Amino acid sequence: MHIAFDADDTLWHNEPIFDLTQGHIAELLKEWVPADELGEKLNHLERRNLRLFGYGAKGFTLSLIESALEVTRGEIPNAIIQQILDAGKAMIEHPVELLPGVVETLERLASQHPLLLITKGELFHQETKVARSGLAESFAGIEIVSEKDEATYRRILDRYAIDAERFVMVGNSVKSDILPVLQIGGNAIHIPYDSNWELDKIEHRGAEEEGFFVAESMFEVPNMLQEIAALGWQTPVAAANRGK
């Protein structure tokens, strides 16, 4: 069995840092735009800019600046632009705060199975977060990717010579960590996080129908892995895909 983990909001807190930063900038721009309208503008620009900036704090900061320029019609003071830049730098330098159960679970599983870390985002920032987390030695491989879709997972599994049916992905994003893995015949454990990035939300049929497991915390993952193995790796969607 090979087990892979997402990083942001699965191993450590991430989304609250973005939320706090957005709230801070909304306060700076309240003279020009209500916070909810700024959020809508930012979501639109982030979605449009993903193909150029990718995921992460740097792209978020650039989209924040573009949002500020648009809502103020270019009249934003230079001092506020500087504050947005400073806020972006603070995000990149923010301490890594591990979620409960992460250290204990990884130590237990790493002694039994090869572990991978699969995270998307800007390369340098993700590398620094992994290094600051102190978790790097738990993983047999670390993959930082620009997108987490079926093609990406297939490439990673091919690179490590992993059979999809013996692969489990653990993460907080149904869109990025769960559904693509199920579609290539793998298995997945979803650990919901308190808040989700707007662009990462997706409608789906639910855990039972899609065929993935849901854990309340990292502490539950080892037992769920045993349950998956006991079922013969035959979660409904994975089993259907293997028959294709």
Account of the 3D structure:
The protein is 51% helix and 11% strand. With 244 residues, it is an alpha/beta fold. The longest helix has 19 residues, at 35-53. Strands 3-2-1-4-5-6 form a six-stranded parallel β-sheet, sandwiched between helices.
What's the topology here?
Layout lengths: L1 E4 L9 H14 L6 H19 L3 H15 L6 H15 L9 H9 L4 E6 L2 H11 L7 E5 L4 H10 L7 E5 L2 H10 L3 E4 L16 H4 L2 E2 L6 H10 L5 H7 L2
Parallel strand pairs: 1-2, 1-4, 2-3, 4-5, 5-6
What brief labels describe this structure?
244 residues; alpha/beta; Rossmann fold; DNA polymerase, domain 1; 6-stranded parallel sheet; 11 helices; 51% helix; elongated; disordered C terminus
Q: Could you tell me the mean pLDDT?
A: 90
Structural domains: how many = 2
Gross geometry: elongated
Write down the Rg. 19 Å
Gap between N and C termini: 22 Å
Structural class: alpha/beta
Strand content: 5-15%
CATH class of the largest domain: Alpha Beta
Instruction: Label the CATH architecture of the largest domain.
Output: 3-Layer(aba) Sandwich
Q: What summary fits the major beta sheet?
A: 6 strands, parallel
Helix content: 40-55%
- How many individual helices? 11
Parts with pLDDT < 50 across at least 5 consecutive residues: 235-244
Q: For this structure, what is the CATH homologous superfamily of the largest domain? A: HAD superfamily/HAD-like
Task: From the 3D structure, determine the CATH topology of the largest domain.
Answer: Rossmann fold
The largest sheet has its strands arranged as: 3-2-1-4-5-6
